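Ligand: 9D3. Inputs:
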Amino acid sequence: MLRIEVLTIFPGLFDAFLRESMVGIAIRRGVVEIAVHDLRQWTEDRHRSVDDAPYGGGPGMVMKPGPLVAAIDSLAGPKGVERTARVVLLSPQGRRLDQPRLAGLLEREPLVLVCGRYEGVDQRVIDLAVDEEISVGDYVLSGGEVPAMVLIEGMVRLVPGVLGNPESVGTESFRRGLLEGPHYTRPPQFGGLSVPKVLCSGDHAAVDRWRAQQALEFTRRRRPDLLESKSHEDES
Ligand code: 9D3
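Predicted complex:
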C-alpha cells in the first residue's frame, strides 16, 4: 500500500488527476491511498492568509511559516525520531527528479508532498519541517502542484500490481538508461511510409537485435547526455 498526503492551497487541481486513468484505477483497487489537504485548514486568522511580504523587500509574496509547519507537523509528526512520514517539498531549488530518485521515494513512503506557491516558502519551514526538496526540472512553473502530480504518477506505476504488464515498468532499454526506438502499429502503409520489414518478419531474435540497435541510435542522436553519464558510471 502506497500512502501519500498532499498539502496545497489548490486542492481542486487534484480532483480529475486522482479520479482518471491509472492513478484512479490504483486508488479504486485499494493499492494506493492519497489524501489532499487544503493548507487553509491550518490558518487561524479571519482572512485565512497563507502568504506575506518578504523581509528585505522584493517582488511577490512568501508562504508564511505558521500554517505550513502546523500542517506538516499534524500530517507527518514533528521532525525527528517520532516522525512517521517523509516530508518532500516540491521546489525549484530541489534535487532534480529522475527514475532512480522516484524508485527511492517509493521506499520512503508514507510521503507528505508539500506544494509551494508564490515566490517560495519561508526558509524556517524547510529548516524545521521538511526532509527533502525535489524539483522536476530546470524551468519555471507557478507552484508545486503539477510537480507533485508528476511524482505521484511516476511512483504509482512502480507499485507492484498497478500495471497489467510488469514488462512496461522497466523495459529492457530503460533499465539500461536508454531511450526506446520507434514504435509502429497498423496499417502497414501510412502517409507513404512503411513499417520496417523486420518487424513483420516473425523473426523475434532479429526484432530484438533491431530494437536494441535502434534504441542506441535514437539515444545517440537525441540524448547523447544519457550515454555520457553511463560511461562515467563505468569509471567509478
Ligand atoms: C520567478 C521566480 N523564480 C525565480 C527563478 C523563483 C520561483 C519561485 C517559485 C520559481 C518557481 C516557483 C514555483 N515553482 C515551484 O514551486 C516548483 C517547480 C518549478 O517551478 N520548476 C520545476 N520544479 C518545481 S517543483 C516546484
